[in-house]
Amino acid sequence: MTVENLHIDDDRGLWIPPRLRKFDQQVVFRTPSGTIQHFGTEPLDAYYGMIDESHFGDIDQLDGARNPHLAPNRVSIKHTGGDAETFDVEGVVE
Hints:
- The chain has one domain.
- The protein is 0% helix and 36% strand.
- It has strands at 5-9, 13-15, 26-31, 34-39, 47-48, 74-79, 85-90.
- It is globular and about 35 Å long.
């Protein structure tokens, strides 16, 4: 797991580290509740609005958790052809 921690902004979503914002084909986000594939070639904004606090929590609180190994507060980010990096997300669980 990467030492760097991420956070959620209530209005803007998940903060993405600058080094992970550029990609060639797709980037895959995995949270405890599910997986999001983002296709394109334009760099991501600093915040990814598709991921908010509702994507995190204890397994018994998430309806149909797709990636329970990431619970309660981790996210993985993977670019096409690269290795997934896993991060803790601060402030999403008490």
